[in-house]
Predict the structure.
Amino acid sequence: MHNTVLITGVAGLLGSRLADWIIENQPEVNVIGIDDLSGGYTENINPKVVFYNSNIIGDTIQDIFIEHQIDYVFHFAAYAAEGLSPFIRGYNYDNNLKVTALIVNECIKHQVKRLVFTSTLAVYGHGNGGIFEETQTPKPIDPYGVAKYGCEMDIQIAGEQHGLDWCIIRPHNVYGIKQNIWDKYRNVLGIWMYQHLNGESMTIFGDGKQTRAFSFIDDSLKPLWNAAITPEASKEIINLGGIEETSILEANRILCKVIGEDVNVVHLEGRHEVKHSIPTYKKSIDILGFKHNTSMYQGLTKMWNWAKEQPMRDRFVWSKYELEKGIYSFWKNDKSNNTNLPKSGVSGYLS
């Protein structure tokens, strides 16, 4: 039996790599993808994907559901610049809450078998002493986390009222081949690679003692597929990703070792962010079959070798923020040829 999946944000890291995995491991599955290329690239998209270059906000998403009998939806599209979200509130909510609402509508109307939604650890806020477990009541500290939590609640309401089957995944600090290393505002490992490739100093916000659990993308691909097809994943919220606690300083040290060259590192002012962000992972192992196979050194080696071969693409910089008050000095003086806001984002950003 042939199933058809829709991946939103198919040109981003998560969307493009999941499409690759499905095509390589589930050849009977048809993959449809949508992305407006606001943060992803056509070169990332597997040629076997039926690709729509479009915003979700518009008629295209309705046409896709009408033309293709969609069985499963992986909704990865988001604008996930977490630290920037307090300064672009309106854009943040439009491109997370509103876009997700449109996807939920179509999933209900066309009776998809399951919607898999990627949320974020940002919904937890400071959590329980930096340890995040799925049973905790979310308390986000930034508009991005608020938007994602709102999406989660809307999806659960759709499940209760309209019978929508869903699985909410909370990934964290994902990195790997096909990541947008040209994004100035997020993905610290990609930012460091871009900086070094362009002769700039690597930057660390604050003292660098913040801790995270970094996740190599390839370890999460089969578990993401299982989130759609495994009966036990129905209506579950699951943390997914790395299990090792690593400080920003240690992550930088590992990358510098991978690069194998002299690297200059500078510390900038601290940001409004969670100090320690370490999720539990038992549910991902028990339900999705997650395995932490790739050490950070191994994953960064693969990503760095890929990054060195990439073209010097233009780097998007916001030329105007919605809110200037309180903007950090390292973003305040950004200049760019961009005169408009980025398009209504459906690229596969990931937090």
DSSP finds ten helices and 15 strands in the chain.
